[in-house]
Amino acid sequence: MLQVDKDGMVHNVLVRRRRFVSLERGPMPVVNGIVVHQTGGATAQSTFNSYQQSAYGAHFLIGKDGTIHQTASLYRRTNHVGLLRSRCLARHTCKPADLTALKKAGPRGENRREQRKAFPDRFPANRDSIGIELVGEYNPNPEFGKVRGADEYVYVSVTDAQNASLRWLVAQLRNTLEVAAGEVYRHPAVSFKTSTEAATASW
Amino acid sequence: MVRAFLPLLVLLVGCASAASSTEELPVPSRHPLDLPTIGRLTITENGIGSPPDQNVPRHCSAFQLDETQVRRFIGMADGIDRRDYMHTLDWSPCHARGRVEFEDGRKGTWTIRRFQTGSILFDDNGEVFLFCPDCSWKPFVW
User: Fold this and answer.
1) Which residue, of A101, A121, A141, is where some domain finishes?
2) Does residue A150 share a domain with residue A99?
3) Closest CA–CA distance from residue A31 to any residue of chain B (Å)
4) Same structural domain for residues A203 and A132?
5) Which of B22, B83, B90 shows the shortest C-beta gap to A40?
6) What is the pLDDT of residues B104-129, one digit of tens each?
7) Which structural domain, as residue segments, surrounds residue A19?
8) Residue B55's closest CA among A196, A195, A115?
9) What is the pTM of this model?
C-alpha cells in the first residue's frame, strides 16, 4: 500500500514528486478506475513543458527508462480522459432506448449521455479516475499506403522498463485506492482515441 | 451530523465535476489552409475502419463520401497541427481515402475521418492536417 500525504502525494523511493497544480481541478473523493495513456511526445521533459502551460494532463508520468513521476495529487481530478465512450455499447448491454439514442449521437452526444450515468453504468471519467501517462511518440506508419485502412501514424511500443513500472504502479494504486482489476483501461477503450495509443502497455 | 450530510456532499461534488468535465476539453489551434486549387481527385477507400482498431464497431460502412463532398471538406477545413490530429481531437477509425493532385503539381494521399478531421500526406513528404467543425452534414458526426 502506498504512503500518501495529506496533499495526495505519494512518498515512495520509486516515485518522484513533481506536482503541477495547474493540472488539478476539483476534489476527487472517489476513485473508480485507472486510465493508461501515451503522451505523443518522445521525452518526459516535453510533457513537463506542456504541463506548465496546460490544464490537460494526468496524475503520473512514466519515462521511457521506467522512472515514475507523480504530477498531480491523488485527491484531485485532472482532465485526462476526454469524451466518454458508451460502456453499454462496449459491453453489448445497451437497452433498446440507449441503442436508438446512440445511433443518432455523435461523440459529444454519447459523452453527454454517459456523463449523466453513475459508475459503474459508465466508464471511469475525469471525476473518478487516475490517469497514468507513458512517454511515447507516434511515428509514420510503415503500412500506410500498403495496407487498406492503415492509419497515417502509429504510437511507438511501450518499453520493457515502462511496463515493469506500470505493473508496479497499477498494483499499488489498486491496493491503496481499492480499484477493481477490471477497471484499468487503455485510453482508447474509454474515449475516442487512436487505437495504437498505449496498445502495448501491460499491467 | 457531518457524517449524515457526507453522501449529499459527495453527490454535489460529483454532479459539479460531471458538469465541468464536459466543458473542459482542449481546443485545437486552427489556421487557414493555403492550398492551391484541387485538380484531379480520386477515391480509393470508402467507408472502412482502421485495421487494428479493437474498439466497438462503429458501422464504418455508413461513412461514404463522394467526390463533391471530399472537395467541399478540403475547401472548408482549417489546418491543425499533427498533435491535435493524432492526440487532442476525437478520433474515428472510420474514414475515406484517396489521391489528390493540386494545380501546382503537388500530389498526395488524402484521408477524411468521420469526426470531421483529416490529413493530406504529400508525395514530397509534406503534410497538412485538417479539421472542419463547420462540415456538419451527413455522413459526418460531431
Assistant:
1) A121
2) no
3) 11
4) yes
5) B83
6) 999 999 999 999 999 999 999 999 99
7) 1-81+124-203
8) A195
9) 0.90
